[in-house]
Design brief:
about 325 residues, seven-stranded mixed beta barrel, six-stranded antiparallel β-sheet, about 20% helix, elongated
Length: about 325
């Protein structure tokens, strides 16, 4: 078919099709889902002229090989793996022209854990709950509700806009331009957080340990949540609450003193104390951490968290305007 663009010749263990996830359904118990690293996904999309939350491919660190069936403009953002074409590294965070029948390999490890590949026009996927994201729990959305695998053929979702057609022509002529924007500091261990609703459940000693202890992401970690290994935290009252709202970035404390950091596919309510909440801007950095990586929490004020969010939003808007101006 004319809209087929990628043949997967090798694929990793958890590579899925994602967008920003279903909207307005948390009250019905539907997870936020979607991009694990929203910032990197949005950068990749904007670089190819898509809207920020267009459907793309989320690649978890493992060797991949993609054969492109037609001329396309792509962009990679995030981390975990370095893509290459004919043994030449493809720069991350830049739009890139790929000619038909080219093969891109993704196998060299780099800092991070999740790489995002956006294609101009987006990638076609199954719609579920008004989202194209893969829901692995109910096996719906994305590509047949499952991770991608060898032999799958990915198609384009939308016709190219005039801007994307011009961008393709510019890049096809081997024109190179450097786009500067704020990138995630993938090697940073510092994760900024707000005090949670049950912060006062912690003893004064435990409150101090939150910011002085280095925690390790446990092996029992996935898109639903990360188990954090470290010195156990003590509470001054029973470690349970009436089931209450939780979201991506909520850090719960279990009766054993172990923390669970909820991620994109997490449940919407929980019965453990919500001791801290990861700032939205650092959720992307958390998503780039893998089992065995270490993190340290830094408590910030709500005002600072809001300012960080606004700064990031402005950065994305500037990037979008720059890409539109090129074409």
């Amino acid at each position: 078919m004319d809209n087929q663009i990628i043949l997967i010749e090798q694929c990793g263990f958890l590579t899925t099709i994602q967008d920003s996830g279903p909207k307005g359904l948390l009250q019905y118990g539907v997870s936020r889902g979607g991009f694990m690293d929203t910032y990197s996904a949005q950068i990749a999309n904007l670089l190819v002229g898509n809207h920020a939350n267009e459907v793309l491919i989320e690649i978890t660190q493992a060797p991949h090989r993609f054969r492109f069936l037609k001329n396309v403009v792509i962009a990679f953002a995030g981390g975990g793996l370095q893509p290459s074409l004919n043994e030449k590294a493809i720069p991350l965070h830049q739009p890139y022209f790929v000619a038909a029948n080219s093969v891109i390999e993704i196998k060299q490890p780099i800092p991070g854990f999740r790489l995002y590949m956006a294609v101009a026009g987006g990638v076609a996927a199954d719609l579920f709950l008004n989202s194209y994201s893969t829901n692995l729990v109910v096996k719906a959305g994305g590509f047949e509700g499952r991770p991608l695998r060898k032999g799958d053929v990915i198609s384009s979702k939308n016709l190219l806009t005039d801007t994307q057609k011009k961008l393709l022509q510019v890049l096809k002529k081997s024109t190179e331009f450097i786009i500067t924007h704020e990138k995630l500091k993938l090697t940073s261990k510092t994760i900024r957080v707000l005090k949670g609703a049950e912060w006062n459940y912690l003893t004064s000693e435990a409150q101090q340990k939150i910011t002085t202890t280095t925690f390790t992401i446990g092996q029992q970690s996935n898109r639903m949540g990360y188990r954090l290994k470290g010195e156990g935290l003590q509470t001054n009252q029973p470690c349970e609450i009436i089931s209450s709202a939780v979201t991506q970035g909520t850090v719960q404390l279990t009766p054993s003193g172990e923390m669970i950091l909820l991620m994109a596919d997490a449940q919407t309510v929980g019965g453990y104390p919500r001791i801290i909440q990861v700032c939205f801007v650092d959720l992307s950095l958390v998503a780039q951490k893998k089992p065995g990586d270490e993190i340290q929490f830094q408590i910030v004020s709500l005002k600072e968290a809001e300012e960080l969010y606004v700064t990031q939003a402005v950065e994305l808007d500037k990037l979008n305007q720059f890409i539109q101006s090129i074409a």
